[in-house]
Specification:
The longest helix has 16 residues, at 170-185. 34% of the residues lie in helices and 27% in strands. The protein has a domain at 2-80 and 156-219: 3-Layer(aba) Sandwich (Rossmann fold). The two termini are 22 Å apart. Helix 3 (96-107) crosses helix 4 (111-124), helix 3 packs parallel to helix 5 and helix 4 (111-124) crosses helix 5. By secondary structure, it is of the alpha/beta class. The chain is globular, with a radius of gyration of 17 Å. It is a peripheral membrane protein.
Length: 222
Amino acid sequence: MIAFEHVGKRYGGRFEALANIDFRVRRGEMVFLTGHSGAGKSSLLRLVMRLERPSRGRVMVAGHDIDRLHHSQVPFYRRQIGVVFQDHQLLFDRSIYHNVALPLEIQGIEPREAARRVRASLDKVGLLHREKALPIELSSGEQQRVGIARAVVSTPALLLADEPTGNLDPQLSADIMALFEDFNRIGTTVMVASHDLALIARLRHRVLRLSDGRLVADEEAA
Ligand SMILES: Nc1ncnc2c1ncn2[C@@H]1O[C@H](COP(=O)(O)OP(=O)(O)OP(=O)(O)O)[C@@H](O)[C@H]1O
C-alpha cells in the first residue's frame, strides 16, 4: 500500500528532516510510527499525503509514484486517504453531522446517500446521538472521535493519523486506538504517528521508529 524507496526530505535545500527512509506497508496492515519530537514523523505522513514532495527517492502509494501525479490529480488522490490530526480541525460553526458530511459534500455525493454514510460513521464512533450538537458542546475526546468519523466517512483504503491521542487521558487514548483497530480489522490500512510508547507497546502492531530523520527500527508485532 505504501512503499518508501530511499526517501530523503530536505527543507529549504539544507535541513535534512528525513534521510534514506526505506520501508513497505502491506495493504491491510496497521503500523505505528514513533520517535522523539522532531524525528520526522509528521514529515513522513505529509509525504504520503503529498503535502510535501521527496528531495530524494520515491514514495509509492497503491503502486503509483505519487510524485508523478499531475497537480490536477492531487485533490482526487488526497480524497482517497483519511486523515486524523491531533487538533481535529473541526469547523466550529457547523454541527457534528455537517462536519462529518463535509468530505462527501465536496465529492458531490447525493444527500440521501451522504446521510446514510454520515450516520453509519457517527454510529461507529459512538456519537450518533450528538449529530445535532456543535463541536464546542463536545469533550475533546468526543471531538477527536468526530475527526475520526470524518476521516472514515469516504471509506478510505488508507487511514493516517498524526498524534491522534496527544491531548487525551490514557483511557480515552486507548478508546481512540481501539477505533483504529476496528477500522483496520475491516481491511483499512492504518498508519498512526504517536509518541505514546506505553500505549503502542500494549497494542502489538508493527512499529517503525524514527530518530533524527532516520529509520532506526522496524519491529514486527509481537
Ligand atoms: N516546513 C518545514 N520547514 C522547515 N523545517 C521543517 C518543516 N517541517 C518540519 N521541519 C523540521 O523537520 C524536522 C522534523 O519535523 P517533523 O514535524 O516531521 O517531526 P515530528 O517527529 O513529527 O515531531 P513532533 O512529534 O514534534 O511533531 C524538525 O526538525 C522540524 O523542525
